[in-house]
Write a structure and sequence with these properties.
Layout (H helix, E strand, L loop, with lengths): L3 E7 L2 E9 L4 E3 L2 E2 H4 L3 H13 L6 E8 L3 H19 L4 H4 L32
Parallel strand pairs: 3-5
Antiparallel strand pairs: 1-2, 2-5, 3-4
Helix pairs in contact: 2-3
């Protein structure tokens, strides 16, 4: 199997991944996976697609992560891993699609409008 590379996005976070056959190592920005995502919740989010397809120990994943916060980065990485697994084995789509792993979350921060303090907040109205 040659290297499979994919892209995942969430909010303003972008995850570029390179998947090879291996022992299940995940390296993020030259750091260990558990060092980059210290909480078990974020580790669970990232490993979700691998556990659904029973491939936790099959592939080595090298990741370039940037932008956004830590939760957005974890969800961007989850989408990238899901897309890579479908590229490797099209049959995996049947397991990942119903779980919502292949859907890109379109919600992003709304832009600030002129003449307002925030996107929807207004300055206090004064009648007189």
């Amino acid at each position: 199997m040659e290297t499979v590379n994919t892209l995942g996005r969430r909010k303003s976070a972008v995850a570029r991944i390179y998947v090879n056959e291996g022992k299940g190592n995940i390296i993020i920005n030259s750091r260990e996976f558990k060092e980059y995502f210290p909480t078990t919740t974020l580790q669970y989010i990232v490993k979700q697609p691998l556990s659904i397809v029973d491939a936790t120990e099959k592939y080595d994943i090298k990741v370039n992560l940037g932008g956004g916060g830590i939760k957005g980065q974890a969800e961007a990485l989850r989408l990238a891993i899901s897309r890579a697994l479908v590229k490797i084995d099209p049959e995996a789509r049947k397991q990942l699609k119903p779980e919502g792993m292949l859907t890109r979350d379109p919600r992003i921060v709304e832009r600030k409008k002129p003449g307002q303090p925030k996107a929807r907040k207004r300055f206090q109205f004064s009648k007189r």
